[in-house]
């Protein structure tokens, strides 16, 4: 048998005000870093791939996964570099690492592809030109099938 509504015991609601923010301002939850370094110099100094760079890298990565060549990846954002590491299997060392080093922007180029032994396969100022090294590998992988 159901109790009438007036006899139900309702828990008291919290009397917290709702905070409204102006457009363009960010809430404290959105400014916190997911890495746990929020508010430190490390969070401000870490190098990151922007959305377009990451999209270009993930496009190549997805094509190589579809070809069965690659299976896993890792992202590292450090003080001097950002790295996208590519693995054939999760437990191995990375086959390739795509790096972004802004300090080399005016010298050799900020983007590089590095193999498992640490040799720089290609370095340049534009990410698209550096990633072309994987197009040849993709063609070979598709031809082998």
Report on the architecture of this protein.
The chain is an alpha+beta fold and 145 residues long. It has a domain at 45-144. The chain is 29% helix and 19% strand. The protein is built from 5 helices and 5 strands, in the order αααβββββαα. A 5-stranded antiparallel sheet has the order 1-2-3-4-5. A hairpin with an 8-residue loop joins strand 2 (82-87) and strand 3.
SSE blueprint:
Elements: H1 28-31, H2 41-45, H3 51-66, E1 72-77, E2 82-87, E3 96-100, E4 111-115, E5 120-124, H4 127-131, H5 133-144
Antiparallel strand pairs: 1-2, 2-3, 3-4, 4-5
Beta-strand fraction estimate: 15-25%
Which blocks of ≥5 consecutive residues have pLDDT under 50?
29-34
Order of strands in the sheet with most strands: 1-2-3-4-5
Total number of β-strand segments? Answer: 5
Estimate percent helicity. 25-40%
Outline type: globular
> How big is the Rg?
24 Å
One letter per element, helices H and strands E, the order comes to HHHEEEEEHH
Please state the average pLDDT score: 76
Oligomeric nature of the chains: single chain
**Largest sheet data:** 5 strands, antiparallel
Q: Provide the structure class.
A: alpha+beta
């Amino acid at each position: 048998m159901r109790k009438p509504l007036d006899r139900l015991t309702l828990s008291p609601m919290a009397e917290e005000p709702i905070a409204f923010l102006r457009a363009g301002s960010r809430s404290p939850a959105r400014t916190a870093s997911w890495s746990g370094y929020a508010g430190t110099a490390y969070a401000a100094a870490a190098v990151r791939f922007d959305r377009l760079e990451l999209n270009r890298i993930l496009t190549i990565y997805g094509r190589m996964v579809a070809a069965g060549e690659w299976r896993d990846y890792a992202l590292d954002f450090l003080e001097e570099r950002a790295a996208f590491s590519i693995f054939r299997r999760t437990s191995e060392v990375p086959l390739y690492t795509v790096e972004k080093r802004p300090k080399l922007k005016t010298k050799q180029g900020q983007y590089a592809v590095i193999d498992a032994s640490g040799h720089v396969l290609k370095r340049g100022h534009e990410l698209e030109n550096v990633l072309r090294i994987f197009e040849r590998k993709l063609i070979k992988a598709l031809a082998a099938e």
